[in-house]
Amino acid sequence: MAAGPACADTALQGQNARQERGEKTLANITGGAGKQVVDSLRDIAPDLGDWIINFAYGEVFSRPGLSLCTRELTTISALTALGNAQPQLKVHIDGALNVGCKPEEIVEVILQMAVYAGFPSALNGIGAAREVFAKRGIKIAARTDPAVPPQETR
Amino acid sequence: MAAGPACADTALQGQNARQERGEKTLANITGGAGKQVVDSLRDIAPDLGDWIINFAYGEVFSRPGLSLCTRELTTISALTALGNAQPQLKVHIDGALNVGCKPEEIVEVILQMAVYAGFPSALNGIGAAREVFAKRGIKIAARTDPAVPPQETR
Amino acid sequence: MAAGPACADTALQGQNARQERGEKTLANITGGAGKQVVDSLRDIAPDLGDWIINFAYGEVFSRPGLSLCTRELTTISALTALGNAQPQLKVHIDGALNVGCKPEEIVEVILQMAVYAGFPSALNGIGAAREVFAKRGIKIAARTDPAVPPQETR
Amino acid sequence: MAAGPACADTALQGQNARQERGEKTLANITGGAGKQVVDSLRDIAPDLGDWIINFAYGEVFSRPGLSLCTRELTTISALTALGNAQPQLKVHIDGALNVGCKPEEIVEVILQMAVYAGFPSALNGIGAAREVFAKRGIKIAARTDPAVPPQETR
Amino acid sequence: MAAGPACADTALQGQNARQERGEKTLANITGGAGKQVVDSLRDIAPDLGDWIINFAYGEVFSRPGLSLCTRELTTISALTALGNAQPQLKVHIDGALNVGCKPEEIVEVILQMAVYAGFPSALNGIGAAREVFAKRGIKIAARTDPAVPPQETR
Amino acid sequence: MAAGPACADTALQGQNARQERGEKTLANITGGAGKQVVDSLRDIAPDLGDWIINFAYGEVFSRPGLSLCTRELTTISALTALGNAQPQLKVHIDGALNVGCKPEEIVEVILQMAVYAGFPSALNGIGAAREVFAKRGIKIAARTDPAVPPQETR
């Protein structure tokens, strides 16, 4: 039962597998932004950075059962509703785009929060989306004639 | 410019179209539960009932651009994160099932809220799901051997 | 500078004045319900009871500058929006009625929260109002014909 | 039952009536600020702008039953309590002044939130009021002698 | 590099170490209650149960740097302030007592939330404490003479 | 029963005692920052400033039964969890250091909020701590080798 050096490596590999899966998922979703957040924690709260990689991305976000786009959209709705985490909301709007969600889908999810968390939450969520879209040069197809009542144009 | 009786009907039809669309979407999503909520408002706040039908369901939830399942999942994540609207969370867990989301997807979305809104929110969200699933006789395929670390079984 | 017994009484009177003002305002607003809450704290957190009387009601709610009805309506909107304090929301819906707010005004304020805090908050606020109104035998004048679109009936 | 062109106009008029009522109420309350918010949404989420005009202002805020000042004060208390919508809080502090609320009433409502949502919420609400008041050159009559205990000066 | 069966055991041991540490800390803090929550998740969300043991208790709560009592008191203040997780608040009031916090300290922490999250949060927090204390037969030493102003009795 | 001038002084002394206690506790905890907040309220909401001194610090924070460090740590966890009061969170991180809490303890409390309020709350709490620590030239002992899994280094 006494494990030799090769086994110590194996134990490390077990941990590393989770870490590698987390790092890969983090990179898939956030590009470099998530890594940057994790790195910025190294001098003050490195374990929080580890938990982000190993737990949040290595365990939760790497799970099968939902597409990464659906994971991102449900994160966006929650952060829009809570309204107290604008930096993270922007990271996940960016992340949603990185994993293939369409800008229009992101806007839809935020709009829907007007019903569930109120108009101020939706407005501030759209503000976050506007910043991220501008940085990426994304333009949403605007309604051609804003004077026409909305239900007619859909 | 003076509109005759036929036109008054038309104006009503415009309003009725929105209302009918709302009632249909409400029924699609909530079965009878949403209608029951709206009806219960008739003696105290009938306009809130109208807004639910005409605005929330007739305008917002009837929009194209997202599947009804994605709309329900993003609602579930938001209500789980806010944690102050258990009755509505149950209605939408039920609603998600009604529009074809799988129970496992609902659980995934709620679990993910452990990361974004904390473990108590996730636990209370699971409590809501358990109630709805029990009422419908839904059983989630449990892990066969809980002693095995989770990453091995997926 | 050494104060005699009469002065000790005076100091007590100063404190008592605040306390009496608080008790009177608490009684004006909540009838016996607030006193009951304060009394129920006597065996576990008597100082919280004192703060409710001396600070919340003796200092804040006794201030001039707003009518008691406006104070109650702004409390109702805040508690409806927060959505995590149903018992207190009911106390203040009751309190608003005690100080002369009309039931219809209370409903209006709660409805408005659909815009600022989302429909679930408004729905749960109406649920609280329904309970309080029922206990007091209050009936809101219902719309005569719910089939007619709301904007026509106002 | 087939409606002619005149009737199509009428249907549009029905929609337009709500829209015009909303635009007028929005202008009454927010001056140009609300319109500016709505316009800023045109290129990313025009429907949210429509909902603000047609639903939030055309349906909810245009209702009889509460003065516009009371509507604004109850909005201010809710947004102060939630604490996650500073831009909207400022718009409504400004709006309260536009519809005739007194600066002192606005301050009273925010102060009261110290009791219902805690001192940080009240402090940040006062910070929002300070900004709006400064922009409009409003000065609150300060207490003449801050060394005197507050209950003596009232 | 290919690890033999003994090594697979070792990898499992690594995982098991975290799990055992989590189970032990969970038992120390919650007695049987936490285990009961985890077990109740087995049929619907077993991974959430694993995360509670392995992450929340095995990684976070098992860290050195804070006494378990301080960890519990800071959890109690947070859950009291959020106000949307009464079941978990009760578990941690119980947990605080299990790890040696005094009932009076728990009450102090909850009272303090009147300042930071408002009186309703403090009141509902005290309600949770009252339930837990009653179940355990704990009595707080009440003030002998409630008529005397509080500052005189301390 | 008519109190003479000496007694008026006594009554003032009673009030002043509470005020002095509050001012002293405020200074102990916040250094000059709390006084600066209170002074900044003099021209818009002087009574809020008085309440901070007389109630929040003179009554609540001056109570025996908890060390000032524990009071500050429980305040930090609550404000981190609420996530809507960053300026006050920074004041209390600073305050915790002023009353002798260790930087590592503050970080521990914030990290723990990842479990109870979600990772975004913890991340933004750490952001507040980083600012305060930087202003005071505080460095946390970083982990020597971030590549090693966290559980090995503790």
Describe this structure in words.
Six copies of one chain form a homohexamer. The first copy, chain A, has helices at 5-30, 33-40, 46-61, 68-82, 86-98, 103-117, 119-136, 150-153. Chain A has 154 residues and is mostly helical. In chain A, helix 6 packs antiparallel against helix 7. Mean pLDDT of chain A is 88; it is low at 1-5 and 144-154. Chains in contact: A-B, A-C, A-D, A-E, A-F, B-C, B-D, B-E, B-F, C-D, C-E, C-F, D-E, D-F, E-F. Chains A and B meet through helix 3, helix 4 and helix 6 of A and helix 3, helix 4 and helix 6 of B.
Rounded average pLDDT of chain A: 88
**What gyration radius of chain A follows from the Cα positions, in whole Å?**
19 Å
Helix/strand/pairing category of chain A: mainly alpha
List the chains of the largest interface with their residue counts. Answer: A-B, 38 and 38 residues
How many DSSP-defined strands of chain A? 0
The ordered H/E elements of chain A are HHHHHHHH
Q: Work out the helix count of chain A.
A: 8
Shape, per Cα inertia axes of chain A:
elongated
Strand content of chain A: under 5%
Helix content class of chain A = over 70%
Largest sheet of chain A: none
Distance between the termini of chain A: 68 Å
| Contiguous uncertain segments of 5+ residues of chain A | 1-5, 144-154
- Give the oligomeric state: homohexamer
Question: Quick gist of this model?
Answer:
Six copies of one chain form a homohexamer. With 154 residues, chain A is mainly α. Chain A has eight helices and no strands.
